TrEMBL record:
It comes from Chlorobaculum thiosulfatiphilum (Chlorobium limicola f.sp. thiosulfatophilum). It is found in: Cytoplasm. The active site is at 252 (proton donor). This is Phosphoenolpyruvate-protein phosphotransferase. Belongs to the PEP-utilizing enzyme family. One of its GO terms (biological process) is phosphoenolpyruvate-dependent sugar phosphotransferase system. Phosphoenolpyruvate binds at residues 48, 84, 204-205, 215. Its EC number is 2.7.3.9. Its main location: cytoplasm. Signal peptide: none annotated. Its cofactor is Mg(2+). General (non sugar-specific) component of the phosphoenolpyruvate-dependent sugar phosphotransferase system (sugar PTS). This major carbohydrate active-transport system catalyzes the phosphorylation of incoming sugar substrates concomitantly with their translocation across the cell membrane. Enzyme I transfers the phosphoryl group from phosphoenolpyruvate (PEP) to the phosphoryl carrier protein (HPr).
Amino acid sequence: READDSIMAHRHAFTRCGVRISVCSNIDFKEEIEHLDATGSEGVGLFRTENLFLDDLKPPKEAAQQEYYRAMAEMLTPKPLVIRLFDIGGDKLIYSPVKEPNPNLGWRGVRILIDVPEILDTQLQAVIKANIHGNIDVLIPMISSIEEVMHIKQAIEKHYDHIKSLGHEPLEKPGIGAMIEMPAAVELIDEITRIVDFVSIGTNDLTQYTLAVDRNNLIVQDLFEKFHPAIIRQLHRVITTAQRNRCRVSICGDMGSDPLAAPYLIGCGLREFSIVSSDIPALKATVGKYTVEECEALAAECLKLSGSSAIKARLEAFVKAH
Ligand code: PEP
Ligand code: MG
């Protein structure tokens, strides 16, 4: 297995029919970048910046953030670095000064970024100044409206123009992406994919909010069903709509690591995955077993099924047959 992993690490992933599938890493700390090459990762598809928050709930200073992001971009270049803006609140670091009755439906993600401009401005300035190699993209967490996307997009433009006018070294404007992790974002996917450079599907939160099942509540864990027909259909809609609008689309939720999900996602048209690095060799090996045509037929069949067990059984039969 180890020998197989090391061979896979140095190969790009292709389907059996030769279609290229890119596989990046989800990371929480800069130090993880050192290990990316060994797993065959093609870059960072999701960097969860909330880990940079300090113990006393103060956001890190701009200079410290800039140095941190710049070091990451430097280590990675020319590979991509997708920096997700602070996704605080909810099940993550609780920032709210009041005890919220239901933090997952409360003050979190982009809502905090919009309400507390110091946090947003500091992070955007740091990210823009760190983009000296042009390999940084910005990802916005917990999007549920077009106004939220526009707010962050305009803030990026404003800071970029200002920083450029100060005569900083030549800097490229970071690309801008939206997390698709709320049912509202799925409903708005046509509009969202017309105004961003890319979208990234967060199946962890998308499953939680679509099925009203707390992702961390053990009592209802059996109901946290990523192969629920509602999720399966949303994924198809997001991927195909993004492609129709020529907007890049990737998955960064844990579902991307699941060997049962991979042929379905490829069948929907997905070509970019971002997953935990340790799962990359296995995903690359999985991808090589199927042709796109087989995956498309599988996806069409799954989309007709109306029960999670039937969908799972179909995916299991497909994987077993290869
Ligand atoms: C997700 O929600 O699927 C996701 C990738 O983000 P996080 O797990 O950090 O909420
Ligand atoms: Mg999320």
